[in-house]
Input
Amino acid sequence: MVALSPETDRVSGASLAILEFAHPWYLLLLAAIVLVLWLATRRSIAGLGPRQQRLSFGLRLFILALLVCALAGLRLLLPSTRVSTVYAVDDSASISESAANAAREWVEQSLAAQRRHDLAGVTGFGGESKIWLPLADQAAAPKEWPATRSATQSDLGNVLAFASAILPAEGARRVVLLSDGNDTGTQALTRASELALQGIEVWTVPLRNPPAPEVLVERIEVPRRLKSGEPFDLVAQIRTTTAGAAKVKLYQNQFLLKEEQVELVEGVNDYRAKDLQVDGTFVTFEVEVEAAQDTQLNNNRAAATATLQGEPRVLLVDADEQQARPLAGVLRREKIAVETRGANGLPRSLEDLQQFDLFMLSDVSALQLSREQMELYRRWVQDFGGGFVLLGGENSYGVGGYYRTPIEQMLPVRMEHEDRQDTPSVALLVVLDRSGSMTAQVQGQTKMSLANQGAVFAMKALQPRDQFGLLAVDTRVHTIAPLGPLSGQGQAEQKITTIKAGGGGIYIYTSLAESLQLLRDAQARIKHVILFSDAADAEEKTAGEMSDGTRVGGSALDLASAMLAAKITTSVVALGTDQDKDTAFLRTLAERGNGRFYLTSDATTLPQIFSTETMKVAQSSLVEEPFLAVATGKNPMLSGIDWTQSPLLLGYNSTKPKPTAEILLATERGEPLFASWRYGLGQTGSFTSDAKARWATEWLAWPGYGKFWTQTVRGLMRRTEHSTFRVDAVEDGDELRITVDALTPEGGYRNALPVQVNALSPDGTRSTKAAIQVAPGRYASRFPLDAEGTTVFSVSSTALPDATYAFGHTRSYPREFLTADTNESLLRAIADAGGGRYAARPEEVFAPAARSAPLRRDISEQLLILALLLFPVDIWLRRRA
Output
């Protein structure tokens, strides 16, 4: 771009260009044009006189010059008095109703001073920015302003960038920021400076909330590293705008620890809880304050986390908590702290898991776990170094529904089984409800597709000599996979996964009648039907039942009894709740068919339910016969035990080892009994028998029982060498700045280590970043933080597999609720950095700027028109005698 003929404004000293070329390189054509015209004129055969030649040459040169200037994009730069303004109005939760009304009145008064050619627009912002009024001349205030302010962020830097993008490139340009200045971002001053360099002024208008009583917990201070049983003081900073009595509650891991009345003075108060002692490995403290006079309740509770060093802790969960006592007892005698729970105590959060170094899951069905819980356990082992052991039982492994789950993914064994001739042959028929209700979406998948996956799981849980068939039913039966041998699994799987929902409800009687006909003559020891139905839409409970209630013939319950007489059993999988109209009928149907009844409201559990039921029916993964444990490897977990003297175990779950698993104990058939391997930062173990008074009854009195389990627990639990990593974490805006010092046992620096930091945010999002070395033995990394909740971090290095450091960082509530005062100093600084004004009057917004970007007017079109008009003149001039 080239500007020509600058003129200087004597008043402002500003330089204003008159002409400008957008593509100046086209001007090089002028020299070539002059040369060509000159040569053409000298050799012209036209009989033109000297004067006529000069006029023709000049006119042609002028016409071609017009064309070249049009190609070069000639523009006029004209002085402009137009002002373009975008109002950025704070719409976050910290703005009171009166402050919001004041902002609206200010904008309306300002818009009243807008001149005819000025432009104005309005945006609202919290964490994100939205256009309330598009940029326009003679703008009016938005007809509808937000009635409530619920945004928990006020990112001033983001709205400055957003507002500037709306402004045109010409004339005086301004962003007017109306806010209380409580910025939850970190880029406001940087953005204001950048806009000033672009010629955009940033003005700020403070919004002030009226005085109101406010009590909040600013922060909690506890040592980041605690020793088990060591006394320490907890300090909470409580700030209040009014003096008075308040009730303070202290929680430890969500349990109320103490409660007391305190007298608060205006300003900051230190609440101190003295001589606290804790056990475990991960603890969360919360302080809550309740006052008679308070405005905002979101900031009345704050939390902090700490990591403990002490004796190892084990969580043992058994479906029957009483059955876990023998194993817990032998571990406690060896100074291992054990907490036992029933299935209702399964961990649901990372904070709960982080209290322990090893998690032992004994004979608990996967149907009592959500997919999210299983994924949580897997991540805890992989990213935070936890130890995990799955023990066997009639509700564990394949028969417990763990086939193809996150639990199986982290175990050293697979739930598949060998084809054994001593198990009975099975003919399994799956009947799927494909009615219209199956089109509903669950976590991005339809209920139908989840049921299809369950049917595939059931098929793959069978052995090659078994038979499988599948019917999809709405108002009639659709044969998807004919009942027959499993030789064509691949083709059948493809057909099953493409089943689509139809219409109406599933016809139960028609389904069972077809099932009876198919299974009656099947050559198999076990003949079984899995009927899947919507618990609110099971139709045709009686043969020929019509929508008007007319009934003809027998009932579906009678048909289930007849099937049982023909040695065909029926289980029912119902999708719904106990309150659904057909739940009772479907439960009775399973009872009549001598099968099992499964009721779930979560369609994502269907694959596990189908595989669980199939393995229970096939009896192929549950081996209940006496056997001896055979030591097959050398490992400290087996040392000092005479395995030739070990008593019999009475049963186990059949599994297959994964390629890199270490098989330490096997059954007499050679199947895995005890296997382990490293999974990510942690270790997992698989014990396919149990450790209680069922299969391990004779082991309980054996001296090797306690020694084996003690060594196993110590061998698989989380290893944390606290002397290797020293970690410091400091909040910086919405990020956590993590500094890691890596040390040798002697206190020296460890350099050039591949250090990584894993983070699990409150919403379950996992992220991993490398920590970059910034000094001898020092590594640094930064992570974004959620507005609230506990983020759990672990520091590790592949060069030091046994050294991990885990800690948590808690943000109690969004920073938006930290203060209700107006941050006038920041607003002044933003106005100074942006070259604008602070607390200006509304009518001043559209005052002409001292300097502004000139208006550019492209005149290429006019040049082309003039050239076209002159072209006939050139022709006339050359033909005139």
Q: What stands out?
A: Residues 5-16, 546-552 have pLDDT under 50 and may be disordered. The two ends are 45 Å apart (CA to CA).
